[in-house]
Structure to design on (317 residues):
């Protein structure tokens, strides 16, 4: 019996120790369970919170789209819709007229000839306009002589929308250093002495037998309807040329000689808005060097092209 009692006591002791261990384990398990519950609660709240945020953002977006559509409608009512042929100028025909050529060298300063400079600018302008989708023709694309009367006839035959004549200016040696800058002319009876002088230089191959009064009267009859449109075109081209050149050379380096009226016979008879651009002075020592560089020629061409584009955007008739 004594042995049995001893065994029972040992067994009871073991049970007590095992029970204590169980209690500890149970407490651990409870703590872990509590932690897990807390985490699940947090995750649930987070999920709920994110869902609510998403719902709110979707609502806001919907509201914004509604306001946008309303605003878009109001803008459509206000803004003038531009026709497709202006934005995509595949139907617009432009005739470029590089001045002089062949036996007529134009302004000359040592080995620099006006006819060569304006031809290069004309070719650069052609590439710029073709990039934008315009149909482009040139009165001459090589060094040969074309009569003044034949130039506008060619533009009329091609049913051009614009006629752009490119020239370079020149003065006597005593005024060579002072005279510089770019200017754009449109056809009209000359009002200033300067315009008369420039027109006389460019009209050497034209109608010299006529008197000044008969020339002026002829000009008013032939181009009365296109004078205002030509004036607008001249303003746009002059602005864009100045902007591009001044961006490269500085404001003080490029003089704005303005938009002027003059009786250029190369523009007479044109059935479209037409302008004559004087890209600089061959007689001026600084401008002569610039005019002979590719970078300057390309900048002028790009400026003219930008001016043509802005003219079509503004004048959608």
């Amino acid at each position: 019996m004594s042995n049995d009692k001893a065994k029972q006591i040992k067994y009871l002791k073991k049970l007590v120790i095992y029970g204590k261990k169980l209690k500890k384990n149970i407490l651990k398990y409870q703590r872990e369970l509590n932690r897990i519950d807390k985490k699940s609660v947090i995750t649930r709240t987070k999920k709920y919170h994110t869902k609510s945020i998403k719902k709110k953002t979707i609502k806001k977006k919907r509201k914004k789209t509604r306001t946008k559509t309303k605003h878009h409608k109001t803008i459509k009512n206000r803004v003038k819709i531009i026709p497709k042929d202006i934005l995509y100028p595949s139907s617009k025909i432009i005739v470029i007229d590089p001045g002089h050529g062949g036996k007529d060298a134009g302004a000359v300063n040592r080995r620099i000839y006006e006819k060569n400079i304006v031809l290069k600018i004309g070719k650069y302008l052609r590439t710029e306009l073709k990039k934008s989708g315009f149909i482009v023709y040139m009165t001459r694309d090589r060094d040969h002589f074309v009569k003044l009367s034949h130039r506008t006839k060619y533009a009329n035959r091609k049913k051009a929308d614009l006629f752009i004549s490119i020239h370079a200016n020149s003065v006597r040696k005593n005024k060579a250093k002072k005279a510089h800058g770019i200017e754009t002319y449109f056809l009209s009876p000359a009002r200033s002495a300067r315009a008369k002088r420039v027109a006389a230089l460019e009209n050497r191959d034209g109608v010299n037998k006529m008197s000044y009064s008969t020339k002026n009267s002829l000009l008013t009859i032939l181009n009365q309807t296109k004078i205002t449109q030509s004036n607008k075109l001249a303003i746009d081209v002059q602005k864009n040329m100045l902007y591009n050149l001044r961006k490269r050379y500085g404001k003080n380096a490029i003089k704005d000689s303005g938009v002027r009226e003059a009786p250029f016979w190369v523009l007479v008879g044109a059935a479209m808005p037409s302008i004559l651009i004087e890209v600089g002075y061959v007689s001026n020592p600084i401008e002569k060097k610039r005019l002979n560089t590719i970078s300057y020629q390309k900048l002028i061409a790009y400026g003219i092209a930008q001016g043509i584009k802005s003219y079509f955007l503004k004048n959608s008739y």
In short: Residues 2-78 form the longest helix (77 residues).
